[in-house]
UniProtKB/TrEMBL annotation:
Family according to the record: Belongs to the bacterial flagellin family.
Assigned keywords, A-Z: Bacterial flagellum, Cell projection, Cilium, Flagellum, Secreted
Protein's name in the database: Flagellin
Domain Flagellin C-terminal: 181-266
SUPFAM superfamilies, sorted: Phase 1 flagellin (SSF64518)
Length: 267
């Protein structure tokens, strides 16, 4: 359940560097000016397009933040699923009536440790101080476009032992072990359905990001001829850095690092 600290530290340092780079890129875009020789009409047009670009940029930040939530959720769900599968294996073994008391005690100890591990994963799988698979993501609104009605809402269920219906499950005898199997099968199915939901949401968000990127490229290509900054290249550099940030967050989330430290870097 623990990760190599070197991986976590590398990812955090890399994320710091990306944040610094993105700040510089954003400042460059914000300070782009209209050359003095351009006409007043060109200036008005360029400023109008710049306003549109800023709107799309804010929407893209919303989309990429949501993708970050989904990446972190995927990492946590993967660990929860692995623990549940192992717990089921133990329940199958405990259903054997020929086990000695010592054998059953050993199985129960590992079973309890795995359950505690699931709760730890839930507590540590956070994004912006919200427990992504702890029930804190309820009706989260994500803006997919610059206009009204272009939103989607995302809800992720809690995956702690209590939420999964496994709070009172144990392997103390054959009957309890068989009851545990039923409860675990239900929990595993629930987690699997949530994982599929996360995948579908991620695909939709990535599709929205691609559409927004295309629109922004068209807008910035138009305005770049009116300003002294290559807006198209500047925005794409900014987007690339943002994507790298999200990928790094995903690495940390899937490695069970404490995401609170990571999100603090992103403000």
């Amino acid at each position: 359940m623990r990760i190599n600290n070197n991986v976590g530290m590398w990812a955090i340092r890399y994320l710091q560097n990306l944040q610094s780079t993105q700040n510089t890129q954003a400042q460059s875009l914000a300070q782009a000016t209209i050359p003095i020789q351009q006409s007043v009409a060109s200036t008005v047009i360029a400023e109008r397009i710049r306003s549109q670009v800023n709107g799309y940029r804010e929407v893209m930040m919303s989309v990429y933040n949501a993708i970050g939530v989904m990446n972190v959720a995927e990492g946590g769900i993967q660990n929860v699923s692995s623990n549940l599968q192992r717990m089921r294996e133990l329940a199958v073994q405990a259903s054997n009536g020929t086990l000695s008391e010592a054998d059953r005690t050993a199985l129960q100890q590992e079973f309890s440790q795995l359950a505690q591990g699931i709760n730890r994963v839930v507590e540590q799988t956070t994004y912006n101080n919200r427990r992504v698979i702890g029930g804190d993501i309820r009706d989260m609104q994500v803006q997919l476009g610059p206009n009204e009605g272009q939103q989607m809402r995302v809800t992720l269920p809690g995956m702690d032992i209590r939420s999964l219906g496994l709070e009172n499950v144990n392997l103390n005898n054959v009957e309890n072990a068989q009851n545990a199997l039923k409860a675990l099968d239900t929990a595993i199915e629930s987690v699997s359905n949530t994982r599929s939901y996360v995948g579908s949401v991620t695909n939709r968000l990535e599709g929205a990001a691609r559409n927004l990127s295309t629109t922004m490229l068209n807008l910035t290509s138009s305005v770049s001829t009116l300003t002294d900054t290559d807006m198209a290249r500047g925005v794409m550099d900014w987007l690339r850095t943002r994507l790298q940030q999200q990928a790094t967050i995903g690495i940390i989330g899937q490695s069970n690092a404490n995401a609170m430290n990571v999100l603090r870097l992103l403000g």
